[in-house]
Amino acid sequence: MTTLITGATGKTGQRVARRLQTLDHDVRGVTRHSTPRFDWHDQTTWSEAVDGCTSAYLTFQPDLGLPGADEIIGAFAAQAVAAGCSRLVLLSGRGEDGAQRAEQAMMASGAEWTILRSAFFVQNFTEGAFADELAAGSLTMVEHTATEPFVDADDIADVAVATLLDKGYVGRVLELTGPRLLSFEEAAHAIGGPTVAYHSMPTEDYITVLTEAGLPAADAAGLAYLFEEVLDGRNAHMTSDVETVLGRAARSIDDLDRSERA
Fold first, then answer.
1. N or C of the chain: less Cβ packing under 10 Å?
2. Mean pLDDT of 18-47
3. Alpha helices (runs of H) in the chain, residue ranges in sequence order
4. Quick check: bond before 179 cis, omega within 30?
5. pLDDT tens across 207-219, in order?
């Protein structure tokens, strides 16, 4: 009864793997640098990764909402189900049209699926895309006016483990949010302190910032336009799904351990 974890060194993947191992479940964590190697964009790596696994927690890089992700997810899910790995929990995004196409592709594979649609992670400010800049005292983002119910990656991991181990969640779509609506500027100040300088800019200028930071041009454009899409107010509401699954309130951004703050 082995569970495959893609993105096993990522913000949620490592947390899910650690929780399952604590519960004495066999885990196979894979990345582009693991043995066996796993790469979403190299189908020849899929078979060895999924062999012998009965369930999987799936995170897609760089984002499930980007063009072509639906085709990749559909092909992988079909191959996994054929290999006996039929229980699939997919981390998705809220309000992303492309991500919903990927969800549909997985649903069509015959898998016993669960979808976790997540708000922006709190840990994006401490471990992820914004961490280095925030630690240096600033944050740059696409121009927008919407607020976001930032969710803690530990809550996502707790929900993922609960849904992997309980077949009562098969066929369910869960929306995971934190308990507060904050602007990106408010979140940056909550984590990095009141002196953080917040900058917003038009999407085209933000693409330039991302490419200058080393992101491939296509990924930079895709992510910038995705941010523009989902930060139009469509996700400016909370849900109770974290509390429903875990039997406790979702963690607030204020609950972040001081040692994790920028």
1. N
2. 97
3. 13-22, 46-50, 69-82, 97-107, 131-135, 153-165, 184-192, 203-212, 217-230, 241-246
4. no
5. 999 999 888 998 8
